[in-house]
Amino acid sequence: MKKLLLSTVLLFCLSLTFTSCRDTKNENAQDAVENAAEDAMDAAEEAANNAEEAAENAMEAMDEAGNAIDNATDAAGKAIDNAADAAGEAIDDAAAATEKAANDAADATKKAANDAVNAVKGN
Which of 37, 74, 110, 118 could form a disulfide with 123 if both were Cys (CB 3.0 to 4.6 A apart)? Predict the structure, then answer.
């Protein structure tokens, strides 16, 4: 009877030992899976935040580039207007000088012709 009781207790202890080890392994595996899932979610959230920040930075850079293009376009337009105004003034000045020279030449020609006529008449 003693042997039967001791054998039963021994088998009971062995069965508890193996059962509790399996449960611990399952719990450890479940914890590892849960930890891995949490780590994956954290990494995905961080990646999403980084992507959002990168998109915002890209939008700001595009806005700055657009402003720079607008400023450059305005400056080029002003430079073209100034060059056109200067060219127009130069043409006007040249035309006035040409007109004055032509008038002076005409006056000189008239005077020379009058002098020649007077010289021929003997005055």
Answer: 118
